[in-house]
Amino acid sequence: MFVHPSSHAFEPFKYTTLEDLKNELKRLSIPLPISSFTENLSEAIQSKHLIIPNRLSIQPMEGFDANLNGSPSDLTFRRYKRYAKGGVGLIWFEATAISEDCRSNDHQLVLSEDNVNDFKQLTSLIRDQCDRNLELLGFKNRCCLILQLNHSGRYSKRNGNKYPIRAYHSDELDSAISVKRKDGVIISDDELKEIEEIWVRKAILAKESGFDGVDIKACHGYLISELLSSFHRENSKYGGYSLENRSKLFLDIVTQLQNKFRKDSDFLITSRVGVYDGIPYPTGFGVKSIVNDNFPASIDLEEPVELINKLYDLDVKLINITAGNPHYKGHITRPYDVPVKGGKLPKEHPLFSAYRIIYLTSVIKSLVPHDMIIVGSGYSYFRQFAGNLASGVIQKGMVDICGFGRMSFANPEFAKQIFQGKTIDKTKSCISCSKCSQFMREGKSTGCAVRDPEYRNKE
Ligand SMILES: Cc1cc2nc3c(=O)[nH]c(=O)nc-3n(C[C@H](O)[C@H](O)[C@H](O)COP(=O)(O)O)c2cc1C
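A: This is the predicted complex of the input protein with flavin mononucleotide.
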C-alpha cells in the first residue's frame, strides 16, 4: 500500500553523509534500503541468452545533437564514447525517431535506410570501447546495447514548430505545452496501422545497425504511451475501455517483431514502459478510475502488470520501468531540486518522488515472472549515495538493474567509480538542477551545464 504523505513538504538535498540520508528517510517514513556495501552491483544477470555483465545502466537521454538527416554527429559520438568508458553493462541509447515527421527536435536521431551505416559505425565503436573497459574492470561478459525507437506523438515538432500528433484531445495536456486544439491532429486508425509497419521496419534496421535489441518506447506521454490512456478515443480500434484496444499498436509491433526474429532469438525486443503517468483518469495510465481525482493521481497498477505479463508471454525478457509525463509535471519522472525556468517546485519532498518510482518498479518486479529482467529509473537524485541505494534495492529484490539518466550526462564514469572506489564522486555528481531539461525545452543540444565543459556557458 502506497500512502502519500501530504505533510512532507519540499526540501532540497542537504545530506553530507550516508547517515544523514538514512535519518531523513527514517524521518519521512520512506522505506528505502541503503547499503554500505556495493559489491552486488558487479554481479552479472542472465535471462535465457541475455547476459548483462553488471547491475548498472545508462538510461536513454536525448542529446538532440544529430545531423539533420538523423545520423549521429561528432557530438553524439562524444556522448556515447563517454558512456562506453564508464563501466556500465547496459547502454540504453536515446529516443530515436522512427521517421523525420515524428521527431521532437530537428536534431533528434532518426534511423533510416540512408543512414544505417552511420549507426553501424556508432555501435561498433561503442561496443569495442565498452567491452574493452568492462574487461579492464574485470567483467567477463560483453556490454549490451539497446536502441530506443520512438514516435513523439503529442510532442512532435515540424520545422521547429510544435505539431502535436495526438491519440485524443486533452486541453490539460495541450495547455502544458502551450498548444491549442486547432494545432496539429488526432492521428487516425489507418495512420496508426502505417506507423506499425514503419516501426517494424526500423526495428529490423536497428538489428542491422549492430544493436543487441530494440526498445518500443511506451512512456512519458509519447505516442504509444498516450494510446495506453486513450480511454476517450472514440470509434477506434486503438482506444476505449479495453486495455486490448489501448495497447493494440504496442503489442502488434512486438508481435510482428517476435514473429520476424523468432529464429534469431539473440536479438531482444524490449520496451521502456511508463507504468504510472500520475495524471488523473481518464488522461493517465496506471491510475485509479476516479473522476475528479487530484494530481498525482491514486496509483492502480493492475493494467500495467497485465500489460507487462502479456509482453512476457510475447517473449520480452527485459523491461525498463519509468513513470510520469515530464512534459506535464517533471518531478514524477525526475525528482529535482530546481525546476526548469518558469516551472514550480513540487508540493512533495523529492525523496518521496524518488521513492514513488522505485516503489512502483518494485511492485511490478514482484508481480511479473522472476526471469523478466527489470531496469529501474530515477536514481540520479541520490548523487554520491546512488550506488548505496542501488545496492540496497537490488539486494532486496526490488529491481535487477539500476539505470542512470542525468548522472550519465554529469558523470558518465559513475559505475567505474562505484566498482573501483565503492562510491560515486560527489564533486562530479548530478545536482538535479534541471539545466539539461532546460536545454531540451529550448530545443538545444542537451548535456550537463554544471559538470561537462562542453555544455558550460551554453545556457
Ligand atoms: C535531457 C533529458 C533527456 C531525456 N531523454 C530521454 C529519452 O531519450 N528517452 C527516455 O526514455 N527518457 C529520457 N529521459 C528521462 C531519463 O531517461 C530518466 O528517466 C530521468 O532523467 C530520471 O532518471 P535520473 O534520475 O537518473 O535522471 C530524459 C531526461 C532528460 C533530463
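The pocket of flavin mononucleotide is lined by residues 59-62, 94-95, 148, 219-220, 272, 322, 333-334, 377-381, 404-407, 436-437, 440, 446 (CB under 6 Å). The mean pLDDT is 96.
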